[in-house]
Write a structure and sequence with these properties.
GO terms for molecular function: ATP binding; ATP-dependent diacylglycerol kinase activity; metal ion binding. By secondary structure, the chain is of the alpha+beta class. It has 10 helices and 15 strands. The strands form 3 sheets. Strands 5, 6, 7, 8, 9, 10, 11, 12 and 13 form a 9-stranded antiparallel sheet that branches. It binds adenosine-5'-triphosphate (ATP).
């Protein structure tokens, strides 16, 4: 009997490039011996319901879309007892998850990996029970990804996110928060915070040099403290433009479980989409929860070496600067 593949397509993701290429992709899947079922998404949050009901009947799930589509697919798969391996054809604007996992960005190459790639057991984050594949974030820039106009994203790519974020710096208010990271408490007034499972955020390779792995069973926590003066803001902007994070204002750590307390319900973003407003939430990692198909060489590597949870670092973005990254203690 033929192997069965469910191909989920968000036709509206990114510039809609998949529309012109879907037939070639389906043709490739058929040539590789799959009986293909195609579903084009019709509305938000449709994929999890569909997968809960039907994923068990397939040998492979492939989704095409941006980070939001992938997030919905992962949420659906987590609800299934038997989770088929997941192929991902990135078709969004930035595609952080794909960058982190070494999944090619062109549709034909990604489609080939979706059928011929090797499975990589990827950690998944849980935010109050809802899955995220690469980021849960609060504060200053968290609405950037879903409020930056699509045209600007298409035109500028990742630079759109950082520019939109910098534009807002002068007007933003810090939030009083307390985060308990595997029992260690971090309290203060934070402009921004993110809990990630990714080497790439907003298109910037934040993790490569601090040894982030997507299957080390750990989430990375990045917190940006309140900036008191114009000079401090300028310092942070300059560091960002140099491709760095300033260790005096940015704390980085790792944890399996992060419990967050805030003064009032605050909005969060999950994988670039609005994630709801919460006053208290538990964020934890589900180690090796989803088998994602990726480059066999990367999968064989078993993920990059991971820094221990005790190291607190200001990671260096992959940028122009040649300086090393900084290490500081809490
Ligand atoms: N037919 C549809 N109509 C409206 N929204 C849809 C439809 N199909 C899917 N969606 C929703 O569109 C949202 C955005 O999709 P996605 O994130 O995949 O693309 P994108 O925003 O272009 O990419 P990125 O977030 O990487 O920039 C998803 O949350 C999904 O639920």
């Amino acid at each position: 009997m033929n192997k069965r593949l469910l191909f989920l397509i968000n036709p509206n993701a990114g510039k809609g490039e998949i529309r012109a290429k879907a037939l070639d992709v389906i043709d490739l899947f058929v040539r590789e011996g799959y009986e293909v079922t195609v579903h084009t998404t019709q509305r938000r949050w449709e994929i999890p319901d569909l997968l809960r009901e039907r994923a068990g009947g397939f040998d492979r799930i492939v989704c095409s879309g941006g980070d939001g589509t992938l997030n919905e697919t992962i949420n659906g798969l987590l609800a299934c007892e038997n989770r088929p391996p997941l192929g991902y054809i990135p078709a969004g604007t930035v595609n952080d998850f794909a960058s982190s996992l070494g999944i090619p960005k062109t549709i034909p190459e990604a489609a080939a990996i979706a059928v011929d790639g090797a499975p990589y057991a990827c950690d998944i984050g849980l935010f109050g029970g809802r899955a995220f594949s690469y980021i849960a974030a609060f504060g200053a820039f968290t609405d950037v990804s879903y409020q930056t106009p699509q045209q600007v994203k298409n035109w500028l790519g990742r630079a759109a996110y950082i520019l939109e974020g910098i534009k807002r710096l002068p007007g933003i208010q810090p939030w009083p928060m307390r985060l308990v990271c595997d029992g260690r408490e971090l309290a203060g007034e934070f402009l921004f915070g993110m809990i990630t499972n990714s080497t790439s955020v907003g298109g910037f390779a934040v993790g490569e040099r601090i040894g982030v792995s997507m299957n080390d069973g750990l989430l990375e926590v990045v917190l940006v403290r309140q900036l008191q003066s114009h000079a401090e803001r300028q310092r942070v902007i300059n560091a960002l433009l140099e491709g760095e994070l300033d260790p005096d204002f940015v704390t980085v750590t790792k944890a399996r479980r992060v419990e967050v307390f805030s003064d009032q319900p605050r909005p969060w973003t999950l994988d670039g989409e609005f994630g709801g407003e919460v006053e208290h939430v538990v964020i934890e990692v589900l180690p090796s929860a989803i088998q994602v198909l990726t480059d066999p060489a990367l999968a064989a590597e078993g993920g990059r070496a991971s820094a221990g949870p005790d190291l607190i670092r200001a990671p260096k973005f992959s940028g122009k600067s040649t300086q090393g990254y900084h290490i500081s203690a809490l």
